[in-house]
Structure formats: structure tokens, C-alpha cells
């Protein structure tokens, strides 16, 4: 049986923590593990987030553009009332809105990357120039249609999550979209805490896609790797330290690489706590604490792992007019509420598994997914 690190509501020892994200559940769970009371604004206000948060609010917005910026500051002020929060932690949804991050920082103590740091790594030209200057392998980019489009992908400037990526077909792109040369290989991500010369890697994960029509690189899931070659880890750690200092990154971030026959190529930097937070978090050394400490310039502690853990997003293949009610297992999160209407391709939940090896963990994850899928596809128990 897989059990998530318990984020149960226990007496707070570290006060309130503001959270703003497209989905706030993972950050709320991490805040609970670190002894904070989460105050959450996101797009869903799902039942898990409500259960974890001291208070949770839902704002309008969409998965591509994030939350409506004009209502965010009033919502956060309403959540805090007269209390001064420990910090405001930002999750997904701000990669294309660095000016909104700058605005929030004028009202709240933001922990993590500021607007300028986000611009430095989410602007394709700036990231490419930084990688060239720091001798970090990075694919060629272009704003013009290449002569060999079959060897390129198209991406959205500031995009995240994989759904914005597609294969080039030779057609000109609208504003905000660019070409990146395709790199064949396996996807590997490094979760790290940026803190200048003390930037350190939390761990590595192998990621996979959940292909969908029009979204061949939609994020599917990730498994935490038990072992990683030391020399490679040190080399990648050097790249991330250099990039963190160059771009003034701070706090929890992640870096996506492609491992090919010629080595590792940096594809993207996510300047925020990312999708693998759940599978790397730990009670003994909570990652939210490391995020806050690094952001404040304090020493921080990282967890250590002896097993593997994985998570995946379960999507529905067909529309669901009314999501059925059933008893959810404790290895699922981001759960849909009974009666919810879902379109084909919508996320249903996040599924977890843990094991002594990567292979055993991935096998358990697939079994868990099939078990749950029967409830909403086949009218299971």
C-alpha cells in the first residue's frame, strides 16, 4: 500500500503561508508538512485543497494564462486579514506573467524567484544566450520557420507543463511561439534549491508524457530516481549553480534535460516549485522550509531518500457528464468531486506509488491507475 507523506492538519508551529498557483493542492500539502497553515488561491478549489488549507479561494482563469491578475491581490488580502503571513509562495501560472510577480512583491513577501529572474530563464533568447555564455548544452532556437521543420518543435514563450509543445510543420507561428531544435532521448528532471553558490540538487526524476490530440508532449508523470551517476550529477550541479547565479534564481526550481547519446541537454528551467514536489517532499526536511530559507538567505537542509516514488496524472479519454461518487484510496490526490462534468482529456486526479526500485514503483503506479480508471470508465464499485 502506498501512503503519501501525511500532510494532515496538525497544530501550526510556523504560522500562515500564502499560496497562489493554478493548482494549489501540492503546495498546500507541502506547507502542512512544514508546519504552516496554508491560505490558498487557485483555479480549482478542489476537495483536497479545501481539506488541506486553512482557507481556500477560487479565482477565474485558465490553464494557459493562469489566474486573473486583477483579482489576485484582493483575494490574497482577504485570506490574510490582519495576519502577516510567513511568505507568499507562487506555483504554476506565473511563468508568462513576470510583471504580475513584480506587482505581488509590492504587497506581500514573495518567497522564490522574482519577476526579473523569471524573465531571465523563461525568455527563450535570454536563456539561450546564458547557456552559451556558461557552456551549458542547450538546443538551437529560432523565431523564423526553419528549412527542416521535421527536426524542430514549437513552444510558447514562458510556457510550462508540456501542453504548449508540438512538432513543427513548416507553417509560420503566431506571436509568442518559437521553434526549438528537437533533441532525441529520454526526459530527466532535476529538482534543485537555488541559493547562489550554495545551489544544490534535491534529486533527479525520469518523466514521461501523456500524449493527447494536439498535445503530444502533455505532462504524464515522473518517478524519483534512487541512483544517479555521481560525475553526471556534479556536472549538472555545476551548470545549475552557474545559471542560478547568472539569473538570480532563488528557492525551489526545476531543470528539464534530455539525455541522449551525446550527454545531457538543458531544455527548460522552471523557476518555481514544480510537478515533482510531492515525490521529493519529506517530513524530516520539508522542502517548503528549504524554499523559504533559501529565499531569505538562510542555510537550508535537504531530504535524503532510500527508495523510489512516482506520481502520474490520470486523464479521462471520454467526456463524463457527472463524475461518480466512490471511496478514494489514500494514494490519490487532486480528486474530482461527485457530479463534476469533465470533457475528454481533462485531468481526473493524481496517482502515487512508492517502492524499493524504480521498476517496482512504476509497476505499482500502473496498477493503481488501472484500478481507479474502472470507477469512472466502467461503472466499477
From TrEMBL:
Span of domain ATP-grasp fold PylC-type: 136-276
Organism, as annotated: Manganibacter manganicus
This protein's name: ATP-grasp fold PylC-type domain-containing protein
InterPro entries per UniProt: ATP-grasp_PylC-type, UCP016817_carboligase
GO MF terms held by the record: ATP binding; metal ion binding
Signal peptide range in chain numbering: none
Gene3D superfamilies in the record: ATP-grasp fold, B domain
Amino acid at each position: 500500500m502506498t501512503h503519501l507523506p501525511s500532510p494532515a492538519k496538525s497544530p501550526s508551529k510556523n504560522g500562515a503561508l500564502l499560496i497562489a498557483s493554478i493548482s494549489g493542492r501540492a503546495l498546500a500539502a507541502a506547507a502542512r508538512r512544514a508546519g504552516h497553515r496554508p491560505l490558498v488561491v487557485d483555479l480549482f478549489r478542489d476537495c483536497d485543497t479545501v481539506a488541506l488549507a486553512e482557507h481556500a479561494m477560487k479565482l477565474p482563469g485558465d490553464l494557459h494564462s493562469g489566474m486573473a491578475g486583477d483579482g489576485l491581490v484582493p483575494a490574497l488580502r482577504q485570506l490574510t486579514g490582519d495576519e502577516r503571513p510567513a511568505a507568499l509562495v507562487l506555483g504554476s501560472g506565473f511563468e508568462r506573467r513576470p510583471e504580475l510577480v513584480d506587482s505581488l512583491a509590492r504587497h506581500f513577501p514573495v518567497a522564490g524567484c522574482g519577476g526579473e529572474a523569471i524573465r531571465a530563464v523563461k525568455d527563450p533568447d535570454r536563456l539561450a544566450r546564458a547557456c552559451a555564455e556558461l557552456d551549458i548544452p542547450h538546443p538551437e532556437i529560432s523565431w523564423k520557420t526553419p528549412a527542416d521543420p521535421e527536426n524542430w518543435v514549437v513552444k510558447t514563450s514562458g510556457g510550462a507543463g508540456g501542453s504548449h509543445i508540438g512538432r513543427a510543420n513548416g507553417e509560420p507561428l503566431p506571436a509568442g511561439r518559437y521553434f526549438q531544435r528537437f533533441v532525441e532521448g529520454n526526459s530527466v528532471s532535476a529538482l534543485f534549491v537555488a541559493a547562489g553558490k550554495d545551489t544544490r540538487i534535491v534529486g533527479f526524476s525520469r518523466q514521461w508524457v501523456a500524449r493527447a490530440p494536439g498535445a503530444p508532449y502533455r505532462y504524464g508523470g515522473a518517478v524519483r530516481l534512487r541512483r544517479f551517476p555521481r560525475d553526471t550529477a556534479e556536472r549538472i550541479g555545476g551548470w545549475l549553480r552557474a545559471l542560478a547565479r547568472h539569473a538570480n534564481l532563488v528557492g525551489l526550481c526545476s531543470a528539464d534535460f534530455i539525455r541522449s547519446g551525446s550527454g545531457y541537454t538543458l531544455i527548460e528551467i522552471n523557476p518555481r516549485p514544480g510537478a515533482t514536489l510531492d515525490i521529493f517532499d519529506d517530513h524530516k526536511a520539508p522542502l517548503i522550509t528549504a524554499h523559504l530559507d533559501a529565499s531569505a538567505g538562510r542555510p537550508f537542509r535537504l531530504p535524503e531518500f532510500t527508495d523510489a516514488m512516482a506520481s502520474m496524472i490520470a486523464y479521462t479519454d471520454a467526456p463524463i457528464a457527472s463524475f461518480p461518487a466512490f471511496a478514494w484510496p489514500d494514494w490519490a490526490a487532486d480528486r474530482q468531486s461527485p457530479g463534476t462534468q469533465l470533457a475528454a482529456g481533462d485531468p481526473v486526479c493524481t496517482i502515487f506509488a512508492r517502492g524499493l526500485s524504480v521498476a517496482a514503483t512504476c509497476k505499482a503506479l500502473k496498477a493503481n491507475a488501472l484500478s481507479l480508471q474502472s470507477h469512472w470508465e466502467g461503472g466499477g464499485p
